[in-house]
Amino acid sequence: MIGKQLLNYKIVSLIGEGGMGNVYLGEHMSIGRKVAIKVLRPELASNEEVRSRFKNEASVMARLQHPGIVSLFDYVENDDGLFLIMEYVEGIEITDLLKALDEPLSIDHAKDIMKKVLSAFSFAHKNKIVHRDVKPSNILIASDNEVKVLDFGIAKLVGDSQFNLTKTGTQVGTVFYMSPEQVKAKELDQRSDIYSLGITFYELLAGFCPYKSMTSEYEIYDKIVREPLLPLTDTMGDAYAQVWEVIQKATEKDVEDRFQNCDEFIAALDTEVSKAKIEKTVVQAEEQVKASPIPMQTPASQPKKKSMAWLYIVLSLVVIVSIVAVVQLIGNDEVRDDSVNKTGTIERDQPISEDRVKSTMNSYYRDINNDNFNANDYYAPRVKQFITKSNITTTEIMNLRIANSEYLNTQASINNSSIQFSHMENNDSYWTYWIDFQCYRKKKHAIQTCQTQIEVGFNEDKLIVSYRELQVKNLKFESY
């Protein structure tokens, strides 16, 4: 295709490949305007259903003229194939943006992106268009930080059977972002998009899809239909509590309990911001009042009384002397014993709870299972970087994956009843627990199973600062 001419456009280079076709960069031969030219694959051109879907995308895009939606300039059908001539956007898909980050987006930045995305979908929905394949890879962040929604290939015009290319009972969409009604192959409306937008917002904040650890489509479907999402606060912290409430509303299982339109979704994000500002203002006002107490005025006619401060001072000294005497009689050891828990560590110094240990480490092992990581001696010293997404690049992550290629298809799960507080050290709290571990050992050509006791340390900010294996038992290898 490169070098060929389509209407007044010369095809310059290949810029993308997809399941239905390729996307090329084109340039107008007279005015130099750049365009994106989507070409249906020749081997699919004879498939009537695929051709209809391709034409459907053109018909839908022709109805949508919005700054947040990629514009369609022309549709061409000739002996060489089917072509969409579209607006060319220099930018990056949200999926690639998140992969390139060294740390998660800030909450404010993620909300800014999401509100722009919701504005585009609000326009589409008001024009009776349901996208049905909402996901981060279908949203571009342009070079000017504006958003562009892509790929209306399976979109549906509500109430018009001409634009409904799938029958009831047929699933459409990308499994990780499907709504419960999509999984059940039910009739869809804009609230299905809102669910998918909620999952997209979750990924935008957390850096990963909440269903990414699932290993089969059945498992994902079951999770979507029956189980709640992993709370965003479990993986990202309490600072995300308010945006997590918004996501929960968007991703309710029952469509009637969700936001009914994108404008409600946007309003919830704005309300969350306003609420935070109000709370901050109230706190600042209270602090200002405390710092500047209102002076009390004494009427001039009222005679001054003699100060009783000396009496209070004397009484205070007597009380202090009495307390010291009691402490000396009881003995320092007994006082210490009463303030120490069963493990000999003062409980108030523990910066993390057992529930937080459980949720954090379960999330950690879900990451391991998904990305084929193994908690071995090489990986353990760098565990903090993966949990916090700090000071590590995409290249370094890839190098670690390569280095751990000996341990394939790892599966690790915590025995929750084994979690125990161990000790405090430099204000860090240390916990131990057992995991059931399984993996395929490439060099041994065998499946390895065992139980491993782990010690993990958390600092006062609830971040992992230490991770090591204490002992292994029931180690077995089964030839494969």
Would you mind describing this structure in some detail?
The protein is an alpha+beta fold. The protein has four domains: 5-87, Phosphorylase Kinase, domain 1, CATH 3.30.200.20; 91-273, Transferase(Phosphotransferase) domain 1 (Transferase(Phosphotransferase), domain 1); 311-340; 348-479, Nuclear Transport Factor 2, Chain: A, CATH 3.10.450. 38% of the residues lie in helices and 23% in strands. The protein contains 14 helices and 16 strands. The chain has helices at residues 48-62, 94-100, 107-126, 180-183, 190-206, 217-226, 232-236, 241-250, 262-291, 309-330, 332-338, 354-371, 383-388, 394-403, and strands at 5-6, 9-17, 21-28, 34-40, 72-78, 81-87, 91-93, 129-130, 139-142, 147-149, 156-157, 407-414, 420-425, 428-441, 446-458, 464-479. It has a six-stranded antiparallel beta sheet, with helices on one face. Strands 12, 13, 14, 15 and 16 form a five-stranded antiparallel beta sheet that branches. The radius of gyration is 30 Å and the shape is elongated. The two termini are 47 Å apart. 25% of the residues are buried. Mean pLDDT is 75; it is low at 159-172, 273-348, 371-382 and 384-394.
How would the blueprint of this fold be written?
Elements: E1 5-6, E2 9-17, E3 21-28, E4 34-40, H1 48-62, E5 72-78, E6 81-87, E7 91-93, H2 94-100, H3 107-126, E8 129-130, E9 139-142, E10 147-149, E11 156-157, H4 180-183, H5 190-206, H6 217-226, H7 232-236, H8 241-250, H9 262-291, H10 309-330, H11 332-338, H12 354-371, H13 383-388, H14 394-403, E12 407-414, E13 420-425, E14 428-441, E15 446-458, E16 464-479
Antiparallel strand pairs: 1-2, 2-3, 3-4, 4-6, 5-6, 7-9, 8-11, 9-10, 12-14, 13-14, 14-15, 15-16
